[in-house]
Amino acid sequence: MNLCYVSLLTGYLTPLKRRSSYGLLPPYMSELRVVLLGNSWSQRSSVVNFILGTNVFSTEEDPGCCLRVSGRVKEKHIVLINTPNLLHPNISNKELTEHVETCVGYSKPGPHVFLLVLQPEDFTEEHKQRLQKILDLFSNQSFDHSLVLISTPREESPGLMEKVLESPPLIDMMKKCKCRNLKQKNLEPSELLRHLDKIAEEHSGDHVSCDVFEDTESSSPADQQSPKQKQTQTADIHSVKAAGKCRKF
Question: CATH number of the domain that 166 lies in?
């Protein structure tokens, strides 16, 4: 059963116009909403910090919660929802659904892109199956809105990246995502944002909309900002935790 569907925004027939150097976006898009998934909290957190250009998240410990941050980058408002380790085998189906529900609430009216941050040497067949299940919980169209970001191996050696890229689970996941993939090594923030924008543009700005969760009450999270964050040049960064959803593994 398809739990979700991709919403179709009608009545927007204005030709696409270039909004920035990152790519082509529909003129009615006011923000870009991205959900991060993967098998390493540290890597996902470092990617959020990389995009926003400031250390919003600690990369040391997985808090077991969905966390939401937003910021303005090069005249673009971007919302990033970081997830706990949803690929952990000890998370029950009920807890998994609750985390997906929280992501839906934090990305209202729906995410534009799923950024799959994968640590290649640790991405197993079990991880792949778990990640596919999570994406299917959002929508059977989630793979069309997904981009694989391949983290730099922890220990680099000649030929290692080529070897890990031959991993069948990683290859299968990239194929499911229409071979959309980037390597994090030597990647610039503008290049990553350009690819995120491109996925949104391919769908004319349509977001993934999960009607199964529409009736669920999601409390508006209170903005929490550290003094260090307030001193940054990013104007409106804030982070929140999902009340009652925290769990450490």
Answer: 3.40.50.300
Q: The domain containing residue 113 runs over which residues?
A: 30-214+230-239
Q: With a cut of 60, say whether residue 61 has pLDDT above it.
A: yes
Residues 27, 30: Cα–Cα separation, whole Å: 8
Assess if residue 17 is contained within a domain: no
Give residue-wise pLDDT tens across range 80-99.
999 999 999 899 999 999 99
Is 130 strand, coil or helix?
helix
Q: Tell me what pLDDT residue 211 has.
A: 57
Q: Is 99 inside a domain boundary? A: yes
* CA-CA-CA-CA dihedral for 89, 135, 76, 14, to nearest 10: 180
Say if CB 116 and CB 37 are below 8 A apart. yes
Give, for 112, the enclosing helix (H) or strand (E). none
The pLDDT value given to residue 60:
84
* CA 133/CA 19 separation, integer angstroms: 35
Question: Is 3 among the domain residues?
Answer: no
Report how far residue 88's alpha carbon sits from residue 128's, in angstroms, rounded to the nearest whole number: 11
Rounded Cα gap, residues 37 and 44, in angstroms:
7
Rounded CA gap, 26 and 234, in Å?
24
Predicted pLDDT at 20: 37
Residue 23's DSSP bridge partners are: 20
**Residue given tokens 């997904």 in the structure block:** 146
Note whether 24 and 14 are within 8 A (CB): no
- Specify the range with the lowest mean pLDDT, choosing from 51-60, 85-94, 176-185, 235-244: 235-244
Q: Which residue, 169, 167, 166, 192, is CA-closest to 181? A: 192
Does residue 23 form part of some domain?
Answer: no
Tally the domains of the chain: 1
